[in-house]
Design a protein that fits this description.
InterPro entries: KIF11-like, Kinesin_motor_CS, Kinesin_motor_dom, Kinesin_motor_dom_sf, P-loop_NTPase. It is built from twelve helices and twelve strands. By secondary structure, the chain is an alpha+beta fold. It has two domains: about 280 residues, Kinesin motor domain (Kinesin), CATH 3.40.850.10; about 210 residues, no CATH class. A hairpin with a 7-residue loop joins strand 7 and strand 8. Helix 9 runs antiparallel to helix 10.
Amino acid sequence: MEGECRRAKSGPKGQLPADAGVIPRAVKQIFDTLERQNTEYSVKITFLELYNEEITDLLAPEEISKAAFEDKQKKALPLNLMEDGKGGVLVRGLEEEIVTNASEIFSLLERGSAKRRTAETLLNKQSSRSHSLFSITIHIKEATPEGEELIKCGKLNLVDLAGSENISRSGAKEGRAREAGEINKSLLTLGRVITALVEHLGHVPYRDSKLTRLLRDSLGGRTKTCIIATVSPSVHCLEETLSTLDYAHRAKSIKNRPEVNQKMMKSTLIKDLYGEIDRLKAEVYAAREKVGVYIPKDRYQQEENERKAMADQIEQMNASLEVNHKLISDLQQNYDSELQHSADLSKKLEVTEKCLDHTSNLLSTTKEDLKQAQYNLNEKDYIISEQKKAENALTHQTYVLRSDLEQYTRDNTSLYSKIARGDKLSATNRSVVNTFQTDLASKLDILSNTLNASIDQQNMHLKSVEDLCQSYVDSHDKATSELKKKILASKSLYMSHMEAFLNVVLVHKASANGTLEDISSLSAASCCSLDQLLVCVEGEAQNIFNDIHNLLTIHRSEMTHFTQELRESFQISLDRTKEMSTYIIGLFDKYVEETSKLHSHSNNTHEAQMKSIEDFQMVYEVSH
């Protein structure tokens, strides 16, 4: 256990109360386990103190303790550490007590604890001034199925480390200050050992302190180790608490390699014990008979110091030897791996040489191929350069064609817009022509109605004239028979001309929807026919009037008024007919002129559209 000096770590003695310490609990558990196994066993304990790097046996008898105290006053040698030949250490002359129960252990523990060095400081009224090691060794006898007896040995070391302390805060002076320095020195050495084990350094300074030599097997050895750190919750002990926790944290990283205790035969153990007894007897006999070698104490001290130095040197050399053996083992492994690697490399070298020969052949072939490829590459470069030039020219031509195409597209769009406007104009023209045809048909209907009305009126006038003439003809049948014949002939001629005129009008009306050239010709023919008709009618009428004037001279006075009216009526009809003819001729001329303009404009528009389409088609064919 390790911790601050004022923190109690050994636990209570005697019976096991609720606050019993670690040692009483461990002892009780050991004996309870041994009693449950119901086997033959033996338990031995040792209790030593390490004070100022000096080992003291706390279980030595009173006589020996007094003698040791007197010897110490005379500067006698304390107990010494020795190597046991198995990698461990033992304390020469350490008293072993055989116990049979826990109470005996508690009594021995109380007796040894009473001898421990304690002192009062400002931090603890009973501060431990030394380290203590309480060891319990157990031998258990077991029997094999063959009846052979075996001895199994186990050992438990309970270590109480003196508390680390701040000398200035603890108030230690003179001897107490030196004690605190030694305590801290041994703990610092323990810290270096822990650091070396954690960092896997080549040299671990076990021999720098007797404490680390005693704990060597517990630090990185073949045992199981548990560390208990006792700290104070007070803020005034923060530094000691952190130091203790750092110890525990670093010690936790140490990896031990525990080994199961070997079972030895009873005969072997008895043989070892007999050898130890013989050695002790020889020492007792030599001491009693004084037959040993006697040398001065100074020389003995010098030899002992030399022996210790040599033992330390041997231990260091053994440690170095172990390191060297490990290094040699590592080097041997590295050498073996290097040999294997060299063999592998040799095989790889052979394979590589074969590959090199093959690669050389391939290289020569590849060089020839490279020359041919270089020639082909130069040829391809020339072709590519020419191709690039051609592509650049084509790109330029493409840009030009693209600009022309865009211009043609704009022209095409304009052309389509013009075509649309032409279509719209054609539609307008068709609408105008349709309107013209409708107006022409309506006006022709009006003209036909007017002509029919004029004919009806003319017929009425003729009928009235006929009635008047009939009244006069009846009285002058004979005188007017010839005149009547002429009048009838004139009437028939007039009717035939009128029918011809009506037929012409009807034909003109029926063919009004035809071509404009036919309308013009028919209008001209109608005008000529009408003029001829009017001329004929006028001539015939004039003849009739002359004949009537000649024949009716004797009746001039009676017929003057009638003739005047008839003349006026005919004149009115003639004027109306002339006006109607003039109006119709003017109307036809106007329609012919408008139709000619429309036809000419339509032809011009169509020719312009066709020319634009032909130009666009020609340009498109040239561009593609």
